[in-house]
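Dear colleagues,

For the upcoming journal club I promised to circulate an example of a predicted protein-ligand complex. I picked one with zinc ion because it came up in last month's discussion. The inputs are reproduced below in full, followed by the predicted structure.
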Amino acid sequence: MHCNNKNMRVPSPPGLRMRIIALLWKAGEEAFAEIDAFAWVQRWEIRRTWHTHTYRDTRFDALTACKVCSAKGRCPTGLPCRRCRGTGRVNLLEPPASRRPERPSGGRS
Ligand SMILES: [Zn+2]
């Protein structure tokens, strides 16, 4: 600590810097508290800095390119890929489309 001309204690520059950083972190945590709680309930990944919070749904890790159609969504015949249903990507958390029970489509495409 340093003393100013009124003999008051003033925090040294490194101590002042740490206090400012701590205040910014605290303000950030309070500003993001509600959405952080929502993200925590959703089991999202949260990355924090003092001024930004980034949220990511870890279920995106289960998405991968379809190996049957090389992520094109179409077979060499031109028909939509049955494995990925024409999307070009597969969700590893879902059973393959060909093993699912058929849903009534209500029409032809
Ligand atoms: Zn495919």
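Two points we might discuss: Residues 58-99 form one domain. The pocket of zinc ion is lined by residues 66, 68-69, 73, 81, 83-84, 88 (CB under 6 Å).

See you all on Thursday,
B. R.
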